[in-house]
């Protein structure tokens, strides 16, 4: 007999014990099946990650049948298996359900439960669809009211006695929206506590707990206790952040919470920014151990995640598991794209050509060496800097750059001419993108308009803050703290956002997508965004657009996006890769309007890592071919 019990004291682990009468062949076959999840044990015991154990339940059945082996499950594991079985049964029943839910009856039930905000028709339809499922996914575009629908979903579940409280995992930038919407939607307003991390007191009567991904990972045991001690609904906002799943610290912590939650929901407007494989982690959170029943096998090949047949199969598989309100359904006013492609001035061109020459031929396209891929990611950062402002090359990454984009100053390989040019570049030339940005901001300021300038590199933002100082720019990046963690005399993100919104002398916001690409609404004050540079991260690109193009715009407003690209550089490679990813997401979500809204027309192709493996392979190809 093999004994198994679920251990919840820390991260969920299934402990297997080989009893005296266990058949050796059965134990060996089971160890082989669970090998990818074994994290400890002895000769006669194995500690297996819960997600792997539940994903391999068929292997247990095979061992039982092949070897006539008996299994004895402990009470905690038995209860969890019953919960997962109920989830599977409810999911399958929901898939087979043909009776339409009465929207009117649902809204009346919602009103009686204390929900006071009137839902828009598409929000009510989304609520009905999400309620049909045992666990739900709302992939509506930013600005469609996902927070409102999620709160309505919670209030119905609370009124029906399914859950008693709520945990929201979201970026800190979204905390204010959750607090404001909860107060505006629910009567009486629930008691809300912001979890500040390790050491935060969480009273027993806390009904709604707000936390972020970092804090869940750092204070996992207490968050799990909050979820487990009473029936709790867990909402993961901006759920694309867990796309690395068990391979990421944040994804691992969130996935582990699934075993303690009574109800689970995910929200994001960009569920698969890099391809179909990004869907695996959210589906595993919603339905632990069932993702292989839901997703086609081809989705698990990360490299094929944007192949048309893979995307089509994934889209068909998940079409009934999520709701999505596309931008075309919001009746938003139009967007325009202005692609500005210019040659670099002579010294910048010489420096960039030297970089290409220095790295050309060093990397094979079929390399599997992770160190080489990481090195190529660093080179991509150098090339992006060279195509924007060579001054960045001599300095390396800023202390406030996004984690995963760190890189040292460029190492010059004995080329003293280039070294001299880098050191003197500030005195010799102004990058064309800086001149263009200044001209655009000057023109906007003359008309009393405001502009957002996006850049990945914090040093770019800091240099531009000085270059555009006449316009008193607001500055937001990873080093500018949120109000809840700022010291008394520190400038906070909220202060900078409000200065941009309400100070008539502040004409420009300098920001990077990693810091304010989510949870921030600026559409009432700004209708023009300029991209100084972009990376391969399609989620950042789409989320940043949604800061100024969202529900609430007047019909007469046209939102403008200006893309600055240096001719013949990595800028054009990045543009092509982003187009491919946006098209794949549009196909996955059955949202063809996404391409039209998020990409310029006519359509001509030209820790976060620098890009996916296929992005980095494209960098290697560019270095080899010079194109």
Relevant terms:
Alpha-Beta Plaits, Rossmann fold, 4 domains, seven-stranded parallel beta sheet, six-stranded parallel beta sheet, 44% helix
Summarize the helices and strands and which ones pair or pack.
Layout: E1 2-7, E2 13-18, H1 24-33, E3 38-41, E4 45-49, H2 50-55, H3 57-67, E5 71-73, H4 75-96, H5 103-112, H6 121-132, E6 136-138, H7 146-159, E7 165-169, H8 175-185, E8 192-194, E9 208-211, H9 213-218, H10 220-229, E10 232-237, H11 249-257, E11 263-267, H12 280-286, H13 291-294, H14 308-318, E12 322-323, E13 335-342, H15 346-359, H16 370-388, H17 416-428, H18 432-446, E14 451-454, H19 458-467, E15 474-476, H20 493-502, E16 508-511, H21 513-516, E17 528-531, H22 538-545, E18 559-566, H23 570-588, H24 593-598, H25 613-625
Parallel strand pairs: 1-5, 6-11, 6-12, 7-9, 7-10, 8-9, 10-11, 13-18, 14-16, 14-17, 15-16, 17-18
Antiparallel strand pairs: 1-2, 2-4, 3-4
Helix pairs in contact: 1-3, 6-7, 7-8, 11-12, 14-23, 15-16, 15-17, 16-25, 23-25
């Amino acid at each position: 007999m093999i004994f198994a019990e679920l251990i919840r004291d820390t991260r969920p682990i299934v402990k297997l014990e080989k009893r005296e009468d266990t058949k050796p062949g059965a134990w060996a076959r089971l160890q082989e099946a669970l090998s990818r999840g074994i994290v400890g044990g002895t000769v006669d015991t194995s500690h297996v990650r819960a997600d792997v154990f539940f994903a391999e339940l068929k292997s247990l059945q095979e061992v039982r049948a092949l070897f006539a082996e008996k299994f004895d499950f402990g009470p905690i594991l038995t209860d969890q298996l019953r919960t997962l079985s109920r989830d599977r049964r409810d999911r399958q029943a929901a898939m087979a359900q043909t009776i339409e839910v009465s929207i009117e009856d649902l809204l009346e039930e919602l009103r009686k439960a204390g929900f006071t905000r009137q839902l828009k028709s598409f929000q009510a339809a989304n609520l009905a669809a999400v309620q049909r499922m045992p666990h739900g996914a709302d992939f509506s575009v930013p600005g469609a009211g996902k927070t409102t629908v999620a709160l309505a979903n919670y209030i119905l579940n609370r009124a029906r006695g399914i859950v008693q409280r709520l945990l929201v995992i979201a970026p800190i930038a979204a905390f204010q929206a959750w607090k404001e919407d909860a107060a505006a939607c629910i009567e009486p307003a629930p008691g809300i506590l912001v979890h500040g991390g390790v050491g935060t007191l969480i009273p027993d009567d806390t009904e709604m707990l707000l936390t972020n991904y970092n804090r869940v990972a750092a204070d996992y045991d207490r968050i799990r206790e909050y979820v487990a001690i009473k029936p709790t609904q867990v909402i993961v906002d901006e759920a694309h952040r867990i796309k690395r799943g068990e391979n990421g610290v944040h994804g691992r912590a969130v996935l582990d919470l699934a075993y303690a939650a009574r109800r689970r929901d995910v929200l994001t407007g960009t569920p698969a920014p890099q391809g179909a494989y990004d869907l695996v982690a959210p589906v595993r959170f919603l339905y632990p151990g069932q993702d292989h029943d839901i997703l086609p096998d081809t989705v698990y090949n990360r490299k094929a995640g944007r192949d048309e047949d893979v995307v089509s199969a994934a889209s068909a598989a998940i079409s009934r598991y999520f709701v999505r309100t596309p931008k075309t359904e919001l009746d938003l006013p139009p967007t325009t794209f202005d692609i500005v492609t210019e040659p670099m001035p002579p010294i910048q061109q010489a420096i960039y050509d030297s970089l290409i020459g220095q790295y050309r031929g060093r990397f094979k396209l079929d390399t599997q060496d992770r160190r080489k891929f990481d090195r190529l990611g660093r080179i991509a950062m150098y090339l992006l800097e060279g195509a924007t402002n060579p001054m960045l090359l001599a300095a390396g990454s800023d202390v406030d750059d996004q984690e995963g984009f760190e890189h040292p100053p460029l190492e010059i390989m004995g080329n003293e001419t280039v070294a001299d040019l880098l050191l003197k570049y500030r005195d010799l030339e102004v990058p064309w993108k800086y001149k263009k940005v200044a001209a655009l901001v000057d023109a906007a300021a003359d008309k009393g308009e405001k502009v957002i300038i996006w850049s990945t590199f914090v040093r770019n933002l800091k240099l531009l803050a000085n270059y555009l100082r006449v316009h008193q720019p607001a500055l937001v990046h990873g080093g500018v703290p949120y109000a809840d963690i700022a010291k008394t005399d520190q400038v906070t993100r909220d202060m900078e956002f409000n200065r941009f919104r309400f100070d008539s002398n502040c004409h420009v916001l300098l920001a990077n997508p990693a810091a304010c690409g989510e949870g921030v609404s600026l559409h009432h004050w700004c209708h023009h965004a300029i991209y100084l540079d972009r990376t391969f991260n399609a989620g950042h690109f789409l989320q940043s657009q949604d800061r100024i193009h969202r529900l609430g715009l007047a019909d007469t407003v046209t939102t403008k996006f200006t893309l600055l690209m240096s001719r013949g550089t990595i800028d054009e490679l990045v543009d092509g890769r982003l187009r491919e990813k946006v098209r794949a997401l549009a196909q996955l979500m059955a949202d063809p309007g996404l391409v039209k809204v998020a990409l310029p027309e006519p359509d001509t192709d030209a820790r976060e890592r620098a890009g996916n493996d296929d992005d980095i392979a494209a960098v290697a190809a560019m270095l080899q071919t010079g194109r």
